[in-house]
Amino acid sequence: MTKKDIRPKLELTGATKNEKFQNEVLRPIIKLQHEILILVFKNWCVKQKIKLGNTSKEEFELLLKKSFSKNIAIRNLILGIIIGHYTEDEYVTYQKNTSEYNKRIFTMTKKRLFDSFEEIKKGNHI
Q1: pTM metric for this prediction
Q2: Which of 47, 63, 88, 93 sees the fewest Cβ atoms within 10 Å?
Q3: Is residue 2 assigned to a domain?
Q4: Long-range contacts for 31-40 (Cβ within 8 Å, ≥24 apart)?
Q5: What is the pLDDT of residue 101?
Q6: Which domain holds residue 25?
Q7: Burial class (CB in 10 A: 0-12, 13-18, 19+), 68
Q8: Residue 46 in contact with residue 124, Cβ under 8 Å?
Q9: What is the pLDDT of residue 53?
């Protein structure tokens, strides 16, 4: 069994090379890692003493934007979770355009976390 075998199969197409990599590599990995991404973000919030109990969705969205733009630790942790599932060939492709692919990773991950707001909020008790 290979890394690609455990990824969810998604029926997405992309016109450009970057879209193809996003749809064939990034999206399936992010979907596969959904639960761990939620756990990592919940844990990060606890360590940062961020209380989400009375947080609105709008405030949560701002928190996500701020966290992903200013906090190197959470950015690197999320990148590691995703990059660790690349094959050698995928890693070579990623290295050719890391800035673009990182933007796509963070955009998709923020969206997933935002869509999981209630689940994240429930588990954040400090």
Answers
A1: 0.85
A2: 88
A3: no
A4: 31/7, 32/6, 32/7, 32/8, 32/85, 33/81, 33/82, 33/85, 34/112, 34/116, 36/81, 37/78, 37/81, 37/109, 37/112, 37/113, 38/113, 38/116, 38/119, 38/120, 40/74, 40/77, 40/78, 40/81
A5: 97
A6: 17-122
A7: middle
A8: yes
A9: 83
* 8 within domain boundaries: no
- Token pair listed for 90: 């995928």
pLDDT of residue 119: 87
Amino acid occupying residue 98: T
Question: What pLDDT score was predicted for residue 10?
Answer: 66
pLDDT < 70 positions in the chain: 3, 6-8, 10-14, 123-126
Asked whether residue 12 is domain-assigned, the answer is no
**Could you tell me the two tokens for 106?**
């963070």
